[in-house]
Amino acid sequence: MNGASALSTPEYAQFILFGAMGDLAWRLIGPALFNLYLDKQLPPRFSLIGVDREISAETLRERWRDGVMQFSRQGTPGDDDWRDFASRLDAHSMDLGDAPQYSALKTRLDSARDKADARVFYLAIPPGLFGAVADGLAGAGLHRGRERTRIVVEKPLGDSLAAFRAIDRSLRAHFEETQIYRMDHFLGKETVQNILAMRFANPIFEPVWNRRYIDHVAITVAESIGVGHRAGYYEHAGALRDMVQNHLLQIMCLVAMEPPVLYDADDIRNKKLDVLRACRRIPADNIRAYAVRGQYADGWIEGVAVPGYRREPGIDPQSNVETYAAVKLLVDNWRWQDVPFYLRTGKRMAAAVSEISIRFRDIPHNAFPANTGLNSQPVRLVIQIQPQEGIILKFMAKEPGSPLRLRPVDMRFSYCEAFKKASPGAYETLLRDLLAGDATLFMRSDQVEAAWSLLMPVLDAWAANPAPDFANYPAGTWGPEAAERLVARDGRAWLTPSPTRRDDRDEGCD
Ligand code: BG6
Q1: Helix/strand/coil (H, E, C) string of 349-367?
Q2: What domains are there in the chain, each with its CATH number?
Q3: What does the alpha-carbon distance between residue 284 and residue 463 come to, in Å, rounded to a whole number?
Q4: 292 membership: H or E segment, kind and range
Q5: From the alpha carbon of 186, which atom of ligand 1 is closest?
Q6: What is the separation of C-alpha 175 from the centre of its chain, rounded to a whole number of angstroms?
Q7: Confidence band of 3 (pLDDT split at 50, 70, 90)
Q8: What average pLDDT does the structure give for the chain?
Q9: What pLDDT, on the 0 to 100 scale, is given for residue 500?
C-alpha cells in the first residue's frame, strides 16, 4: 500500500490501455503516469500501448501532452522529460468488439525482445465493453499468467447489484480474482490512506474508538461543481451510485474496521468487508428514516448564479435523478452498536470539502461552575480529506485569566506543514501499486457486492417513487432540509465542515 510496501516495482512492464484516446486517459491516467515517470517511480523498462479504434503513436502523444499540460500535478513538462516519456508510448488500432483482432494484439505484445514481468490491461472504456474485451483477451490467451497479468476496471461497476454481478461474471470467467484490480480513486488519496496509519500506528486513538466514547461519525464529501458535461452518465447514476456506493462506503469501512492482523491486501480487505456485512439492512418500508435525496435548484456559487440541475445541458427537465444523497447506517457489532454513521454527498453544495467528523460523547459529569462555556462545542476529531489535508482535534481549553471560562480550540496537523511537500495524486499512488501488484487499495469483488446489496433497497425505492419535491435545495447550500431532519430525529445535527478559507490553504504544497 502506498509505495507498494512489501512488493516492488517490476523491472519491465507492458501497460496496455484500452480507451487511450478517451477522457479518463487524457485527464487522469496520462498525467499520473507522467508524474510517476518524473518521480522515477515507473518501472525502468515501461512500455505503454494505447489501444483505440483509430489511433497512432503521434495522435496519442499529442493528446497526452495536452492532458499533461492541463492536469499534471508537476506542471508543464520540460522538453527532454516529455520526449523521453513519450518515447515509451505506442499505439494499436483495433475494434474491441472483434474477437479475432486480439490475436494481432497478442502477436504485437509477444514480439517484445523480453518477457515483461508485469502486463497490465487497463480498461478505460465503458463497462458495456468489459465483457467483450475480457473474452477477446482470453480468446487470444492473453489472460494467462496469474502473477504477471492484471486487468483493471473503473467504476461505474454496474448500476445495481444484478448489473455488477453480470460485469463481474464476465471478468471472472477468464481472470482470477487476484488478477482483477477494481479502482476506487478515493482509496489512493493520502488522507484516506492515513486513516489506517492514524488509527493503528498510534496507541491513543484505538482505546476510544468505539461506542463507549464516540457519539456518531459524519462523513461529508461535498462538491461545489455541478454535473458539468457528464449528463449522459449522471442521468443514469445519481449521487448514491456515483459517490456513496463506492467512495463514501470505502471511507466508512476504513473508519469502522477492526485492526488488521497483518498490513496486507487480504487482511485489510477482509476487515473492511466485515463492516459492510455488519451494516444493518435498510428496511424497504422505512427508507425515509435512513436515506434522503436531493436535487439542486438554481442558486449561487461563490457569487455566480448557476442553473439548477434540470436546466443543465443534456439533462431531462423533469429529471428524477438525485444530486445529493444522505444515508444513516448502523453497524451491528460490539464496537459500534447504536453509533450512527451519517454519510452525505452532493453536487453544487456550499463548499468543496471532504471530511470525516468523529463526534465524541459529552463528559459524564460537569464539575465546572455554570456559565463557563463548557459544551459550547462538542469534542471532535476531524479528518480533513480535501482540499485541506490534515487532522484537527477540537476540544475545550481554559481561556487565560479569570473568571474561569472554557473555550473551544483546535489542535491541528497539516500534511503540508509536516512534510513540506505535495501529496501524490490518487491515480499516481494507485498506478504505482498496480504495477507492483499490490491490491490493498483496490476493491475486491465481495466488497463491491456487499456495498451494492446494502444500498439496493434505497435505489429501488427511489426509482419506484419519483421525488415529489425536486429540486429541493438551492445550489450553494448544504443540501435539502430533509437531511437536517434525518439527523435531528436522533437529536443530532450536521456540523458545517471546517471552512476552506483561501488564506488557510496549505501554501506551497499545491
Ligand atoms: C468521481 C465521481 O468518482 O469522483 C464524480 O464520478 C466526482 O462525480 C469525483 O466529482 C470526485 O472526485 P475528487 O477526487 O475530485 O474528489
Answers
A1: ECCCEEEEEEEECCCCCCC
A2: 12-183 (3.40.50.720), 187-358+441-503 (3.30.360.10)
A3: 12
A4: strand 291-294
A5: 14
A6: 24
A7: very low
A8: 93
A9: 54
Cα separation of 331 and 157, whole Å?
25
Distance between CA atoms of 272 and 451, rounded to whole angstroms? 11
More confident residue, 321 or 78: 321
**CA of 229 relative to ligand 1 center, distance in Å:** 13
Task: Exactly one of 92, 216, 247, 365 is catalytic; name it.
Answer: 247
CA dihedral 98, 99, 105, 111 (to 10 degrees): -150
Mean pLDDT within 229-250:
96
Quote the distance between the C-alpha of residue 150 and its chain's center.
21
242 lines ligand 1 (CB under 6 A): yes
- What is the pLDDT confidence band of residue 504, given thresholds at 50, 70 and 90? very low
Cα(84)–Cα(87) distance, integer angstroms: 5
Instruction: Report the pLDDT value the prediction gives residue 491, as an integer from 0 to 100.
Output: 96
In the residue annotation, 247 being an active-site residue is answered as yes
**CB 90 near ligand 1, within 6 Å:** no
Q: What digits encode the pLDDT tens for the residues 455-472? A: 999 999 999 999 999 999
Residues 435 and 9: beta-carbon distance below 8 Å? yes
Looking from the CA of residue 426, the nearest atom of ligand 1 is 14
Q: Whose CA is nearest to atom 13 of ligand 1?
A: 186
Contacts of 50 (CB under 8 A, 6+ apart): 17, 20, 21, 25, 60, 89, 90, 91, 92
Q: Which three cell numbers stand for residue 464?
A: 419506484
Whole-model pTM: value is 0.94
Which tens digit of pLDDT belongs to each residue from 10-47?
999 999 999 999 999 999 999 999 999 999 999 999 99
396 alpha carbon to ligand 1 midpoint, in Å?
35
DSSP 258: P
Nearest protein CA to atom 9 of ligand 1, as residue: 243
Q: Is 223 in the pocket of ligand 1 (CB under 6 A)?
A: yes
| CA 243 / ligand 1 centre spacing (Å) | 7
- Please tell me the residue having the least CA distance from ligand 1 atom 2: 242
Assess whether the previous peptide bond of 471 is cis (omega < 30° from 0): yes
Q: Could you give phi then psi for residue 181, rounded to 5 degrees? A: -110, 115
